[in-house]
Write a structure and sequence with these properties.
441 residues; 2 strands; globular
Length: 441
């Protein structure tokens, strides 16, 4: 092993796995029974921080949020200390600043009207960070807490807990057809279109946009950016495109499906395979009914399994083709050094929950979700993603983002790629659910 076993506590990817599994073990042992989150509100902004039951205020989440901030600051500072990438004291102060901005992002996204329009915490976290960076200029003390990649990778390891193979099996072959046939075809099509037709010079941005469009938006963009070592500006631009179009598709696709009289199960599979965000897919599916919501969510979940595989193959392709100027054959060890190790944690978490926790937990997989995933790992995954988007915003500026546009080529790539995705997905969904397996649901 290059650098000996010291890489296990000196490299960010490994620390993402260690910290991710500390959290997972804490959830499974129920040491951490529930993680606080900012609540919803309509007219009174303070309601977001109150615990209300039957119109009676029973407490608030201010102290739990402060405790969460301190706990995450201490936990991540362990990695910072071992990797020796920053002064721990300055990091903790900066982390607290990033966390407070994350709370504000959640608070804004949870306002009833804003939530209705699907303007997620990720969008607000990114916008607030960009606003600070491009107006006040991010102060050094705050920048010290912006550890984008560490937060992203921990979040992705925790995301693995939600990739339950039982859900994949529940929808069977038609779901696999929609998610696993269309996705790789769309990625390859978009990347080839970007390089050969659009002549995009930024290959990293091209593959990140391709993965975000064809797999699951933000999470896929994050994993792919890590695999090809894309710049933060590449990830910001790809995520921005994905979030904007996700909101549009979430509202207009259910309306279009109802307007043309499309079978709701077919429409749900179509949305599950094309809308970029899992949350947006569930919201859109619910507009067609409970069965449609289930189909849409499971198709998206099956598609999410590909996050690790996409990152794996992108890493190999980048080492052997894109970054291999000499044309020599890259060795297995060279590929291993470049491989994003956090993917191992993502896969390990998925296998652990699918084949160990599930069989040991009474009831169906909803019991696992209600006991361990929904109250702990899912909420913390979103917290880490929120911190990551705040950090991206704080580290980015509009001038750098503008330089990535190449005359609007990323926008053209997204529109053409998503159009191709919509056409191919509806064709495969029709074949799978209407022709070959009409009684799947």
């Amino acid at each position: 092993m290059k650098g000996g076993f010291s890489v296990l506590w000196k490299e960010e990817d490994w620390w993402a796995i260690w910290l991710g599994f500390i959290i997972i073990i804490g959830a499974l042992l129920e040491i951490v029974p529930k993680v606080p989150k900012v609540g919803g509100w309509t007219d009174n902004p303070l309601n977001a921080f109150l615990l209300i039951k039957d119109d009676v205020t029973t407490g608030n989440i201010i102290v739990p949020l402060i405790a969460l901030m301190i706990a995450l600051a201490v936990l991540t500072s362990i990695a910072i200390g071992f990797m020796k990438v920053a002064n721990i004291g300055k990091y903790i102060v900066g982390f607290c600043g990033v966390f407070v901005i994350g709370v504000i992002a959640y608070w804004m996204s949870n306002q009833a009207e804003i939530k209705y329009w699907g303007l997620s915490y990720a969008l607000w976290a990114l916008l607030i960070g960009l606003l600070i960076s491009n107006t006040l200029k991010t102060p050094k003390w705050l920048l010290a807490g912006a550890r984008t990649e560490l937060y992203i990778k921990i979040g992705l390891v925790l995301l693995g807990c939600e990739i339950l193979f039982n859900k994949i099996i529940s929808l069977g072959i038609p779901g696999l057809m929609v998610a696993w046939i269309v996705t790789p075809v769309v990625i390859i099509f978009m990347y080839m279109f970007a390089i050969r037709k659009l002549k995009m010079k930024n290959k990293e941005l091209a593959i990140i946009v391709s993965a975000a469009t064809s797999v699951c938006g933000v999470s896929a963009a994050i994993a792919t950016a890590a695999a090809c070592r894309g710049k933060k500006e590449d990830l910001t631009l790809a995520v921005g495109l994905s979030l904007v179009f996700t909101v549009l598709m979430m509202f207009f696709m259910p309306l279009a499906i109802k307007w043309v009289g499309m079978n709701h199960i077919l429409g749900a599979a179509w949305m599950g395979g094309t809308i970029d965000s899992t949350g947006a897919v569930v919201a859109a599916g619910s507009m067609l009914g409970p069965d449609a919501m289930k189909v849409a969510a499971v198709v998206k979940m099956i598609q999410n399994v590909l996050i690790g595989l996409v990152a794996f193959f992108v890493a190999i392709y980048w080492v052997t083709k894109v970054e291999n100027d000499s044309g020599r054959k890259a060795s297995a060890m060279e590929i291993w050094y470049r491989f994003p190790k956090f993917v191992i944690g993502f896969v390990a978490a998925s296998l652990l929950f699918s084949f160990v926790i599930m069989p040991l937990t009474p009831g169906d997989f909803s019991e696992v979700e209600n006991r361990f995933i929904n109250p702990v790992t899912h909420i913390l995954q979103n917290w880490f993603f929120c911190l990551a988007f705040v950090s991206i915003g704080l580290e980015s500026n509009f001038k750098d983002l503008a330089s990535k546009m190449e005359g609007g080529k990323p926008m053209i790539l997204y529109v053409v790629g998503q159009s191709f995705n919509l056409i191919l997905t509806i064709a495969v969904a029709w074949l799978a659910f209407m022709v070959l397996f009409p009684h799947a649901i």
